[in-house]
Specification:
Radius of gyration: 17 Å
Strand order of the largest sheet: 1-2-4-3-5-6-7-8
Number of strands: 8
Shape: globular
CATH class: Alpha Beta
Structural class: alpha/beta
Distance between the termini: 21 Å
Strand content: 15-25%
CATH topology: Rossmann fold
Helix content: 25-40%
Number of helices: 10
Length: 266
């Protein structure tokens, strides 16, 4: 694997990695996770693709207060720093909201999009509104501390792995142990993100869900796939909300095939 690098941005210092060569993929992790979640993808794809991943503010080893709007700005700064003019962007779960914003503000920088386990992104959509009980976790943080939050979240269906691979379980445990809960003291604000109409996003798009993801997430993924003009929706058998860890070989094959089909990537 590559080595950690750091980039100073406005009010934060970001950890990132830049590995491989070829068409560029920018990987954006979900809530309570960090760039390490993408290790199975980098292992399998870095011989054909250049993969860029980073810890969002307040996650992993990046400093700063969590903010989806700042995350979106940080991605643009990081891409300029690395000389990236155009890339495929993969957003997992909460990170999928950032993709919608980027499609509205820098569409020319996007070759294609991958929404992995996204929330309900339709205007007024509430399919996934109650998936994560943030108020309960915030109360637990105040009364019992971060370890109680980590223990509770580790048992939530969105955090549980289906695989028996102990390497994947150890990787997830390491990431959850780094989650500091800063967003529970100052909740992440999605409202400040630009949200273009889904029907106006014309990039080739892949929407992914695990077979055993929450029903609300599977329905949200299906709805997103139908709302976007050029989208395909794929279900990964035997996987939960973290299909890239549950079924990495299938996940990588689907991602590679999508890139080959849409852009002729190697």
């Amino acid at each position: 694997m590559g080595s950690d690098r750091f980039l100073d941005v406005s009010a934060a210092r970001l950890r990132y990695r830049d590995e491989g060569s070829g068409p560029i993929i920018v990987l954006i992790h979900g809530w309570t996770l960090d760039l390490d979640m993408w290790e199975p993808q980098v292992d399998a794809l870095s011989s054909s693709f250049r993969l860029i991943r980073f810890d969002r503010r307040g996650c992993g080893f990046s400093s700063g207060m969590p903010s989806l709007a700042d995350d979106a700005a940080d991605i643009q700064v990081l891409c300029r720093h690395l000389g990236v003019q155009r890339a495929t962007f993969v957003g997992m779960s909460q990170g999928a909201r950032i993709l919608q914003h980027l499609a509205g503000v820098v569409p020319e920088s996007i070759s294609c999009l991958v929404f992995d386990g996204p929330p309900d992104m339709r205007p007024g959509g509430d399919l996934t509104a109650h998936d994560v009980p943030l108020s309960q976790y915030a109360a637990a943080l105040r009364s019992e501390g971060i370890e109680a939050v980590r223990r509770s979240w580790a048992t939530h269906p969105l955090s549980r792995l289906r695989t028996q691979d102990q390497t994947a379980h150890a990787l997830l445990s390491r990431m959850l142990a780094r989650y500091a809960g800063a967003d529970l003291t100052a909740p992440v604000c999605a409202q400040t993100l630009t949200r273009p109409r889904l029907q106006d996003i014309h990039h080739p798009t892949l929407v992914i869900n695990g077979e055993f993801d929450l029903r609300s997430r599977r329905l949200a993924g299906e709805a997103l796939g139908k709302s976007l003009p050029h989208a395909a929706h794929r279900i990964i058998p035997g996987a939960g909300h973290l299909p890239n860890l549950d079924q990495p070989q299938t996940y990588n094959e689907i991602l590679r095939h999508f890139l080959q089909r849409t852009h002729g990537a190697a």
